[in-house]
Amino acid sequence: MASMFARLFIVTPKFHSPLKPSNFRHSTPPPFLISPRTTKFRCAETSISVIRAISSVDVVTKTSAIEPGRAVESESLPSDVRKRAMDAINSSGRRVTTGDVASNTGLNLHEAQKALQALATDTSACLEVSDDGDVLYVFPEDYRLKLAAKSFWIRTEPFLEKGKMATGYLVRASFGTALIASIVLVYATIIAIALFSEKDDNGVGSFCDSLTNVYFRPNGLFRYPRQQVKKGDGEMSFIESIFSFVFGDGDPNHGTEEERWKLIGQYIALHGGVVTAEELAPYLDVETKIMDDDSYILPVLLRFNGQPEIDEEGNILYLFPSLQRTASLQRSGLKEYVRWADRAEGVDKFFKENKWQFSKTNFSARAMVIGLGGFNLLGIVILGSMLNMTTNPDGFISFVSNIFPLLQIYAASFFVIPLIRWLLIQNMNAKIIKRNRAREQRAKALDSPNLSLIRKLLNARDMAQKTFISQDKIVYSTDKDLYEQGYETQEWDRRFEKIESCD
Question: Entry's InterPro entries (predicted)?
Fold first, then answer.
């Protein structure tokens, strides 16, 4: 069964040919890169796998290839992809295949391969090739420190994340503070206009100056909400609760899509790389009614390079060769049928989406926000009618009159946006509940399968296999010279000559 192999460099060779070890009589590594492709040569007495090499002589490296020393390749990776790949490397003992990283992170095989290539280039990782042509990546113990020392951008990422969090807080706090400022401006202007007819110009100016001193000092306006609302552990401040009421608290399923693919990858690898569609249905978006249509599994086949297989009874099983070969000691595919809860030990029985919340604020904070928003809207209505009756406003009143359209937009959006958001949330939650119910039904069907499904599951377990690539299967490693790796040059030459005589 063919394995999926990762190509380290994209090159355009002028020729491909088996190279004899006797052609390289020196102590440095040979001038070729081991290609992850094996070719079977068969004659009357010989059937061996020869690792083909790509000559480094007269080859043209494409510009899209990874070229060591030119740049820090890991910086081109998305931050979350790089972090997930590094976590998988650590959990696997720093000796991994592309399939190991894909199954432990949920990354598709192309992303996992690209991440491993970039990290290996930047951290001087060792590459090993097995006798079946599998490429393994062996990272040094201090590879994280090496990567951080090489890349200024990666070193500053934690500080940028903290800066992003601080910026997010400032945005939320600014929107909440704007409500308090709007109330102060609106009602201060109402009072000023009411006194305008009773006071002369000096009086009005003095009055407006006093309003500025009272309401716009930092220890007056900005500290007011924090003094009135206590902030407990894990709770948001009153200023933040204003933003939460209007705009919500973000996607509750942020990051769960990556977790979904991680669950699927782990489940396939745990079961020897051969599964049925019914086993993966609890993790995918399926219809409530159970049908024989397996089209929902296509995204999994594309992501993990799977392929359908027909068993002896005509059932369709799904094979994932890339997840069957590992550099980490793991238990092999389960051969006997067991109940779903036992078979999926350590893996969630089905993928559950979180429902959207209107706001995470508690009832009292929400009531206070609505009250202040209503109070501000009432003031906008009153101030609008008063400004229409005011002629030739000046000073403070003129300033508020100029920004009054902005105050109207703020006051209206304070209730329009939450209303629209509430309607959308009802619709989204109804769909989430439907999808969760469908996945739960598929999980229950696996927990109590019929005889036909049991036989299908048993056939999948019989076809399952897990190949551990041990050190004794390694035929080439980049951290050693060719003649330090146990090759018998004369024996290799004899095999090549025998192969050539068969042609």
Answer: At5g03900-like
**Cα separation, 145 vs 155, whole angstroms:** 10
Q: How far is CA 148 from the centre of its chain?
A: 21
* Domain architecture of the chain: domains with CATH: 1-150 (1.10.10.10), 173-252+357-434 (no CATH)
Torsion of CA 348, 351, 357, 360, to 10 degrees: 30
3-state DSSP assignment of residue 42? strand
- Dump pLDDT digits (tens) for 313-324: 888 999 999 998
Residues 6+ apart with CB under 8 A from 33: 8, 9, 11, 53, 54, 56
The H or E element containing residue 54 is strand 47-55
The DSSP string of 95-149 is EE-HHHHHHHH---HHHHHHHHHHHHHHHT-EEEEETT--EEEE--TTHHHHHHH
Per residue in 439-486, pLDDT tens? 988 888 888 888 888 999 999 998 888 888 888 888 888 877 666 665
- Residue with structure tokens 């995918």? 284
| Cα separations in angstroms, 422 against 180, 209, 367 | 24, 42, 16
pTM listed for this prediction = 0.68
Query: Rounded to 5 degrees, what angle do the CA atoms 461, 464, 470 make?
Result: 140
Mean pLDDT, residues 323-341: 57
Whether residue 185 contacts residue 400, with contact meaning beta carbons closer than 8 Å, is answered with yes
The residues, ordered by sequence, that sit 6+ positions from 84 with a Cβ below 8 Å of its Cβ are 105, 106, 107, 258
Query: If you average pLDDT over residues 263-287, what whole number do you get?
Result: 90
- Amino acid identity of residue 252, one-letter, is P
